[in-house]
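Session log. Operator J.P. requested a structure for one protein chain; no other inputs attached. Running the standard single-chain path with token output.
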Amino acid sequence: MKLATTAILLIFCVLNAASAATPSKCHITFRTAVNESPPLYFNAEPGKKAEGVTIDIINELKIRTGCNFNITPMNRSKTSQMLEYSQIDLAIIETRNQIFDKYARFIPVKTAHREFIVKQSEISSDTTPEQLLKDPKYKFLTLPRYRMFFKPDEQEKLDQENRFVTGPTVAQLFEKLKTGKNLVLVFHPVVSYYLKDSPEFKRLQDKENSFEIGAYYIPRRGQEKGIELISQALLNLVKDGTWAKIMEKQRP
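Structure written below.
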């Protein structure tokens, strides 16, 4: 009888240990904003599901965390408003910026060097990002209010010199870049999507300055475990190479 009891206790302990080793799932539905610009998000065609880099990332998060995501594509101005009034829970994938920092907490996932995109015909072979910033003839394309790829001193200088040119979407910024003169777009690696079949542009990597990519969330009681799982899953996506594979699949 003692032997049987001991065996039962041993089995119970093993099961408990196995259960403890398995990460718990969150079973929470997060209201999630995704940047509406390709390749991060492509509008769904009739009878098909939405696609894009962010959708692939979120699908991985569903598998790895058990969380659910109610996705709404929107521009950055709308995302800012939704974060300010706590009308969403998450914003994925986002570049860290001072405006969003006012309303939400940031989950840092990785860093990336910024890139300066300019027509090859408008620069010399040895032009540097620093020279583009200093030369008043070059103007910089940006979304309204969102200058997250510029340092504070750069923003102040370019503002004083009236060197910012705005556009409502990333796609429209690229159209301005193609048709305008002495225009520069400062962006990050997803710029590859827009530069395919565009040999007239040169990409100058700024190896001295980088920025953070990740997600924003609104802290809420009862969602702490879910946010913890999402944060760890995002870091694991980078660590195991899944993030890089998804980025490489940018749709032409």
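Operator note: The longest strand covers residues 201-217.
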